[in-house]
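Example record for the data management plan.
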Amino acid sequence: MVGLGRMGGNMTVRLQQHGHQVVAYDPSADAVDAAVTAGAEGATSLADMCAKLASPKVVWLMVPAGDITESTVRELGGILGHGDVIVDGGNSNWHDSQRRAEQLGADGINFLDCGTSGGVWGLANGYCLMVGGEPDAVALAEPAFRALAPDDGYAHVGPSGAGHFVKMVHNGIEYGLLAAYGEGFEIMERSPFDLDLQEIAGIWRYGSVVRSWLLELLHDAFANDPGLADIRGYVDDSGEGRWTLEAAISENVPAPITALALFSRFASRQDESFSAKVIAALRNEFGGHAVKTEESAEESGKEHAKEHG
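Corresponding structural encoding:
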């Protein structure tokens, strides 16, 4: 296991719980020490890790997508040999996964792209795994897939690139689901009724057509912070929503919900919207509509808070 953060560290533990022996490596010595304490064999480098594995070797990467994955795969390509397997469990772009599979395949090294979902809850609940790659390589690593996944939570979805493609779309759908829950609960929060949002999230978990694990997590979030006062409404994105839209455009598939969900994340990062300023200025120019200054906007915000507080 290369990369012992929140995901990789927990996956190391879950593999061991299911009878696998794991050699663990991370640039952080403290992370390696924690894995050793949990029962893994530690390694001081990628070369040291590979030397401690029996052939054919299976090396699982849980590192950030992009340059770190690229450099790690490149280094492993110079260490591993014919028949060995690299599994990329991160959120890499599926085009990169196809390229890596082709490049490594020229040297007889197998590359599998494994879309991984489960977050910090995966240790207890298991990880949903969407695997792309050659069948023989998948079969070699399959005992690990089945150990990490819950029952019926793993599938070999297609050739190289397919695993990360499916995970990309999975995350695009997630963008829309999160946006819908966010909008609905904001409408209730601003309503004229004194609604208990934690209670509503709670009852919607049972029998409702919108029940989901996300609602369970939202119920827990409200229990910890009823008004979400300690959370800033700044929403980042990992890039997979963007890639999903790129795929939709290339396939001529209308995906307005995913697009709006992504753009709403962009909007959440703005302290002030220049676009909104342009609109306000134009309304003033063509219709004489009043323009709020910074001071008047602040006062309006206070009045709104009084009305809906």
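Summary line stored alongside the record: The longest strand covers residues 110-117.
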